[in-house]
Amino acid sequence: MTNRTDNTCAPSVSSMPASYDHEMEEILRTMLENDEDITARGVIRRYASLSAASSITRNPARSQMLAKFQARQEEFRGWRTRLAKRSKDSAAMGMAEKDSRIAELERQVELLTASHVAMLRAVGELGGYAKWAKFFESYKDIRDELIKMGAMPTAKVIALDEKGR
How does pLDDT run across 44-54, given as a tens digit for each residue? Predict the structure, then answer.
């Protein structure tokens, strides 16, 4: 454990996988929020346990995280530049259009989710749910995501005999 100046303890970066680098992520978020140029050297200046920019650039996970935040910063700065060129009324209208589009997409997702649940219930009533589940057996991530979205029926499915009872 390394003791940081804010008196909180965290595992040393060398003992955890680089992809699990919360300290670097927090530094990058702060730099992005403050619109500071995101560079490996800039991160190192704020990083408690690393002292060389190459510790970031030569580590694939850290380098990827840095690139991701640099791309986000470039995108944010592009938006700010575009907004500065537009009038406030034009920007407000554009945001209203985006809000409307987001609401429409959310409505479509709700509709598709409801229809998916209804389809699965129909398949289950016809005795085909077991086949559907077997087909998606190797797609556990997809099933988990569907469950998280509420797109899987929650009622117990009872198989019918050949006479439909």
Answer: 999 888 889 99
